[in-house]
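Hey, resending since the last one bounced:
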Amino acid sequence: MDADDDRAGWHEQRRQAVAGHAAAFEAGRAAEAEQAGRLLADFVRSAAERGVAPVLLRARSFDGRATYRTRLRGWYLKANHSVAVGEDGGFYVLTVPSSLRARFTGAEVSPSTPRLIVGAGGGDGETMPLAELLRRRLDSEVR
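The structure tokens again:
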């Protein structure tokens, strides 16, 4: 076997290793999203059982200067209203680009893939387990 064959074999092994790591990462993310989705569905069910009414959700511009109506109804999970659970059980990050159009027509917000740790990887250092946020939200309505 010459040097070119060795190099080609090494590159193929590296490619396979990277592909394996990526597949494992995606499988882990999918399992996490599934588990978080169950927590969100349980929250929506519990909120309905306790009579905790959803509210119309608003989104805030990235720069924080403007708020926009949305078509969503749900429950805010953080005091700054940056994340919420929709009536549909979706997880929503309620920050959007500034938009003159959204001032008049409202902002479109799509559900995000839920994580078990809210804010993980966000860089602002403000992380909290999703289960804790959901529990706190339900407990705040009981008082």
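DSSP finds three helices and seven strands in the chain.

Sorry for the duplicate.
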